[in-house]
Amino acid sequence: MSHRNVLCSKWMTSFWQCWWVSVMGMFFIGTLIGFAFMTGRAGAYAGGLDEVPANNCPPLHARPRADFNGDGRNDLLFRDQVTKDLAIWFLDKHVRVATGTTHPTRPVDSNWTPVGVNDFNRDCRSDILWQNDDSGNLAIWYMKHANSANVVHRLTGVLVIGMGPEWQVVGTGHFGPDHQDHYPDILWQHKTTGEVRLWYMQDTVILGEMGITTPFPSAEWMVAAVGNFNDDAWSDILWRNRLTGMLRYSLFEGSIEIEFGDVDPPNTIDPNWDVVSFFQVDGDDTDDIVWQNRTSGNLVAWYMNGPTRVSGGFFEPMGPGTPDLKVVGPK
Ligand SMILES: [Ca+2]
Ligand SMILES: [Ca+2]
Ligand SMILES: [Ca+2]
Ligand SMILES: [Ca+2]
Questions:
Q1: Which helix (H) or strand (E) holds 24?
Q2: What are phi and psi of 103, to 5 degrees?
Q3: Could you give the CA distance from residue 199 to residue 120 in angstroms, rounded to a whole number?
């Protein structure tokens, strides 16, 4: 398995292509730093670099993907579909205990969409993964924990060259092959064919790439969420049929699918609900499916025992009060 720098990947065949991408990558990082200083955000940027903790976080599978205040509990990340601003609900199980935001609240270019939340650089703090709608490239915002005003500051950002605009990041998790590396991996799906590929990551370095073999990938079965059905060290996939709305699951050990089947129940009665996240809402050891209503914006959790729903209930409050605020993480 070869280690290759993300700025010079196998998709760039010539020296000059690689040189050009490297230069543009440096320009992008420079722009981010310049932007931070130009807008008076230099304080958060410079202050944060002195505060990177030692890598003594719990194993990746044993901690929340989206914990923006460091209390060990997942928080919900929203994005306003109109203003493009991010917003945070700090959670205790299904109950919102405080609201917060990020700083900055959005990228300068509105063509970036948040596609994942995880601790990519293993500093025990959740970061935000973005994908550019036009190029398909990725950017990571390395974040700090919330301050007393519940603002989560961006420390710095970095660009990662993607697989092109036809490939969409559908989640982040822990697929291996080495479950001790504690760096999150990135799952991709082709928008048209439904083909699924994995990037094994160490922060921004792509350690390896492979296709996932399962009966499901097709133009119909889309990855609805990545999470953990069975409380092991490996992430699993929740699928949704884009025509029928049916739910299925695949359990993985590393990148090997060991079990698959229908989720019970296999669908919602009302087709107006979208799967928006998959994480431990109630604090037991299995992840729960989070739904958001397209009309009201309300949020419901299905409390799961493996692929079987045990019970369900609304969040408190029931929702953000507008369908414009869509849940974009944990993811
Ligand atoms: Ca938290
Ligand atoms: Ca981090
Ligand atoms: Ca699992
Ligand atoms: Ca649960």
A1: helix 15-38
A2: -135, 110
A3: 13
Q: pTM for this structure?
A: 0.84
Question: Which ligand is nearest the CA of 67, by number?
Answer: 1
Q: Among 174, 169, 173, 208, which residue's Cα sits nearest to residue 189?
A: 169
Which ligand is in closest contact with the Cα of 75?
Answer: 1
Nearest ligand to the CA atom of 71: 1
Cα 260 from Cα 279, distance rounded (Å): 19
CA of 43 from ligand 2 middle (Å) equals 19
Helix or strand (DSSP H, E) at 210: strand 205-211
Task: Give the closest ligand to the alpha carbon of residue 259.
Answer: 3
- Tell me how far the alpha carbon of residue 289 lies from the centroid of ligand 4, in angstroms: 9
Query: Residue 66: which of 110, 100, 43 has the closest Cα?
Result: 100
Ligand 2 centroid from CA 144, angstroms: 8
* Ligand 1 center–CA 67 separation, angstroms: 4
CA 122–ligand 2 middle distance (angstroms) = 5
Q: Name the closest ligand to CA 61.
A: 3
Instruction: Name the strand (E) or helix (H) holding 22.
Output: helix 15-38
Query: What confidence tens digit (pLDDT) does each residue in 33-47 have?
Result: 434 333 323 222 223
CA distance 158 to 176: 23
Amino acid at 125: R
pLDDT in tens, 276-327: 999 999 988 899 999 999 999 999 999 999 999 999 999 999 999 999 999 9
